[in-house]
Amino acid sequence: MKRFKLLLLTLIISVSTVIYAEGSKKIYDLNSLSAEIEHILRDANQNLEEGHSITVFFSVSEDKSIQYVSVAVEKPEICNLLRKKLQFKKLDGIKWREGMIYELSISGRSPVACLNY
After folding, report:
1. Topology annotation, domain 26-107
2. What is the secondary structure of 46-92 as a DSSP string?
């Protein structure tokens, strides 16, 4: 019985690792795309100050990848970074329509949350 439990635990850990690794590469909706953009900016040490925003326009190709990317932002380095990272990024899910142009706005947030009582 102890060996069976150990085998079952090993199987669960390996399956969850595969599921987690596979899930991080796909974008299912605009909310996950927004999180992906925030992740890209954080990894590149590019911050978006509170009160500023980024607007990303993109279209979807027949194979469900981002075909065209246009970024409206004050900093050109952020614009170039997002264009390179998002171009040809695979999308998943049935919500995406090929040929449509999507607009996504991301607002800068304060890095430290303050609670006032």
Report:
1. 3.30.1150
2. ----TT-EEEEEEEE-TTSBEEEEEEE-S-HHHHHHHHHHHTT-BB-
